[in-house]
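Reading a protein record of the kind used here takes only a little practice. The record below shows the convention in full.

——
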Amino acid sequence: MTTQDRSRIIGATTVGVIGNAVLGSAATDTTSRWYRRLRKPSFQPPGWVFPVAWTALYADMAAVVGQSLADLQEQGRNAEYEDLKKALAANVALNAGWSLLFFRGRRPGLATIEAAALAASSADLTRRSMAVNRGRGAWLVPYAAWTAFATVLTGTIWYLNR
């Protein structure tokens, strides 16, 4: 595999992750009257934490999964390559879907279920990446942890506002 091939795979992964981040950001409206009126748990981080955390986590995901995909293709592990691509696509779809369900749909109960699926998907993405390169894949553990936390946070918001 050439450096150009690796760059193409990593670049395509990055574009996909950035596209998802833009879609999720566009769907998020923390200034809406609906959101401001929601009761939130005491453990909810301050608003500034979310864009900082998500930016770091998206950059991490693009780098780790992009490199993992390139490694799999270089090693001729085509089935694992395709499976990781599908896992990433599902993960970014679930990620954007949460913002759409919670902020646009105003459905925290459904968003909680979706967040749980995202957390499971994030753990799977971490596992798959660690199978390619354990040390590099471990960089996705914070992403899996953050999405698990987001599930608890979303569920608590739903519970407090039923």
User: Anything to note?
Assistant: DSSP finds seven helices and no strands in the chain. The mean pLDDT is 94. The CA atoms of residues 45 and 112 lie 17 Å apart. The domain at 3-160 is CATH 1.20.1260.100 (Ferritin).
